[in-house]
Structure to design on (226 residues):
């Protein structure tokens, strides 16, 4: 739990502890990195505006070490800020002021999704999959494009996993949303943003996608590039 407001941090930490979580707290960017390296948490609740360096830099540094889910906090809760948080690589985004109970619910939702990804490995991801120049290794949680490693957020990797399990098949928006969030917390616009971010990582020309194509009026599909 990383926030520079001690009263808020303490309240949220207590709610999380009451729900069975072990919580490590930090009030600035450098301390957050040090405690992340020491304790190796399963999830970060991360304020964007922090002393030392901002939450975006904390996110960059921790993701360089390990692919960990992140819930961003911010004092600004407009739609533009929400989309920005997702573009920066957050798995979810919560504007201040917020209900501590809602935060706990979102933390549980993110962790459930991570667990489903792990369980899904045994269902359809026990071998390396190749689509054109794209290589997906779900067991190692690695993606390569033409031999070059591609870094994806957990949400982007989750999307690519389900696409890779259904190459050439159209997946509806509802199917993709259900895959990402069992509680329906991802909306149409948010899904489009995740798709756009994934294309930006995989496609040489994101505006002319070769791998993840739109099926107008239905959804998306992963195809062999022409």
């Amino acid at each position: 739990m990383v926030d520079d407001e001690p009263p808020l941090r303490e309240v949220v930490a207590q709610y999380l502890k009451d729900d069975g979580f072990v919580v490590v707290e930090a009030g600035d960017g450098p301390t957050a990195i040090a405690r992340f390296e020491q304790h190796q948490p399963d999830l970060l609740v991360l304020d964007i505006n922090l002393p030392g360096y901002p939450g975006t830099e904390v996110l960059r540094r921790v993701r360089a070490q390990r692919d960990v889910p992140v819930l961003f906090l911010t004092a600004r809760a407009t739609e533009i800020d929400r989309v920005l948080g997702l573009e920066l690589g957050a798995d979810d985004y919560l504007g201040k002021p917020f209900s501590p109970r809602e935060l706990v619910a979102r933390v549980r939702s993110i962790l459930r999704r991570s667990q489903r990804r792990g369980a899904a490995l045994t269902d359809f991801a026990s071998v390396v999959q190749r689509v054109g120049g794209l290589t997906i290794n779900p067991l190692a949680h690695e993606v390569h494009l033409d031999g070059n490693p591609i870094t994806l957020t957990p949400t982007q990797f989750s999307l690519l996993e389900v696409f890779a399990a259904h190459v050439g098949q159209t997946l509806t928006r509802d199917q993709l949303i259900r895959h990402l969030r069992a509680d329906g917390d991802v909306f149409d616009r948010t899904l489009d943003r995740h798709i756009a971010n994934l294309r930006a990582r995989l496609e040489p020309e994101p505006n002319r996608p070769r791998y993840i194509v739109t099926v107008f009026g239905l959804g998306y599909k992963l195809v062999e590039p022409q």
